[in-house]
Amino acid sequence: MTGARRKLLTTAGAWALAAACGVLFSFPVLNTVLTSLKTVADISSTPPKWVFAPTLEHYANVFYAAGYKFSQFLANSLLISLACSALLVVVCLPAAYSIVRFGIGRARLLPAAVSLRLLPPVTFAIPFFILYSASGLLDTRTGLVLVNLLGNIPLGLLIFVSFIQELPQELEESAFLDGATAAQALRHIVFPLAYPGIGAVAILTFIWTWNEFLFALMLTINKATTVTVGASLFVTAWGVLWGDVAAAISVAVVPTLLFSFFVQRYLVRGITLGAVR
Amino acid sequence: MVQERRLGYAFLAPLTLLLLGLAVFPGLYAYYLSALDASLETFRSPRFIGLANYVRVLTDREFYGAVAFSVRYTLIVVTLELVLGLALAIALNRELRGKRFLVSLLLLPLMVSPVLLGIMFRLTLNEFIGTVSYYLRAAGFPGNLLAPPYVPYTLMTVDVVQWTPFTFLILYAGLRSIPDEPVEAAIVDGAGGWQILRFVVLPLLRPLLLTAAFLRGIDAFKTFDTIQILTAGGPGSLTTTASIYVYKTAFLTGHLGRANAAVVILLLLLSIPMSRAIRHILRSTP
C-alpha cells in the first residue's frame, strides 16, 4: 500500500469514528427536541416519524397547562444559580488573591478545596437535611444557594488561583509603591485583569448549579424545587405525556447549552476542578 | 507589609467561615449521626447506639452488592471512556472535513445535566415510543434495554456517552501540546503508527491520562443522578450504586444514622484513591 493511499484510509477511518461517536453522543438531545415538536399521535406512531408537521402544543402545556409548576421551577433554578455564581465570585476571588500573593492558606486550604471536589455529595446530604430541617432552611432557595456554594468552592478557588498566578505581579507592585492598599490593588488592578476568569467561574458555577440534582432532590419538597428535580417529577407523575416531558427538558437544557458556548475554553479545567459528578 | 498580611487574612475570612459552616461542621455532624439511631421520625431526639449502625451496614448484603456494582461499573466505564476518548483525540488530531462541527457534536453531552440526559435516554429507549427501541426490535434485537439483563450495560453506555467528551477534551488538548520533534524522530527511526503511540505518545500523555482516570474513577464510583432517574437502583437492587444505597437507606427506609455509617465506610474505602488523586491534581494542574 502506498503512503498516500494509506494516509487517505486513516483519514477516512478517523472521520468515520468521529462522525459515528458524534451522532451517538448527540442523538439523545436531537431525539428529545424532535419529540417535543411532535403531536401526541406522531410521537407514538410506528415506525418513528422523522418528517412531520411541528407543533408547539407541548411547550404551551409545559408553561400554561394547569397542574404544572414548571415556570416556578425555572424561576427557582435561575435565582439559585445566579445568586450562587455571584456569591462564589465574591468569596473566592479575594481568597485566591490572598493565597497567591501572600501565600496564606496555600498549605491547607487549597488541598482541602481539592478534596472537597472529590468527596461524594451524599456525604453532606444527610447532615444538611437534618440541619436544614432544624433551622427552617429545608425547601428554601437560600438553603440550595448555600449547599451549591459549597459544591462550587473548589472550582472557584482553583480557577482563580491559577488565573491570578498568571497575572504579572509588577502592576500591583508599582501600585503598592504608589501607596495603594491590597484592597485597592485587588479592586483596580486584579479585578479588571481577571474579568475572563471571573466570567468563566461565574458561568461554570451557574451551569453546575443549574444541573445539580442530588441536593435539590433531597433538600426540597415543593417550594424550592429546581428544573432538574422538576423534570424528573414530570417523568414519574405524568410518565405517559412524553411530549410534555420532552418540551420541559428541551427548555431546561437551553441555558446551559448557551452558556457553555462561552466557556468552551475553560470546560476541561472546569470539570477537573468543578462540582460535577 | 504587616498590614497587608492582616488584609490577606481578612480576604480569606469569608471563605474560611463558609468552609467551617458548610463543610467542617456538617462533616463532623455526619460522624456523630452515624452513632445515633436517628430516623426520619426520630431525628430530633435520637438515642446514642454506638457502633450498632456500622454493624447493621456491614452485615447488610445489599451494601456489599452496591459497592460491588459501583466497583464493576467504575472499572468498565473508566476503561471505555479512556480508550474511546483517546481514540477520538487521535482521530481528530489532524485536518478533517467538518472538524469543528464534529467536535461540537462530540461535546454536546458534556453540557447537558446528567439527570436530563438520563431522561432523554428514558425517552429514546422507551419500550413503546422510543425510536432506538423501535429500530432495535425491527433489527431482531431485544426492544427494551431498560430491563434486565441489559439494563446495567445501558447505564454504563449512558455514562460513556456523558463523560467520554471529557476524557476526549483532556487528551485532545494534551495531544495538541505534544511537540513535533519526538514524533518526527520516531518516524525517522522507522517506527510505525502503533509503536509511536505506545512508546512516544502514551508516555507523554501519562499525567493527563492519570488525571482523567482518577477523576472519572472517583466520580463514576459515586454516580447517582443518571441511575436514580433511569432505574432508581432497581429492579430490586440490581443497579444500586453506593450513592443510591445511601439515598435509599436514608430517605426511603428512613434510617438516617445507618445511612451515615455507610457514608463513613465508603469514605474509608475512597480515602486512598482520593489522597493519591489530590496529590496528583495539585502537582499537575495549577
TrEMBL record, chain A:
Gene3D superfamilies: MetI-like. The chain crosses the membrane at residues 78-100, 112-132, 144-165, 185-207, 245-263. One of its GO terms (biological process) is transmembrane transport. Residues 74-263 form the ABC transmembrane type-1 domain. Its main location: membrane. It is a multi-pass membrane protein. GO terms for cellular component: plasma membrane. It holds the Pfam family BPD_transp_1. Keywords: Cell membrane, Membrane, Sugar transport, Transmembrane, Transmembrane helix, Transport. Belongs to the binding-protein-dependent transport system permease family. MalFG subfamily. This is Carbohydrate ABC transporter permease.
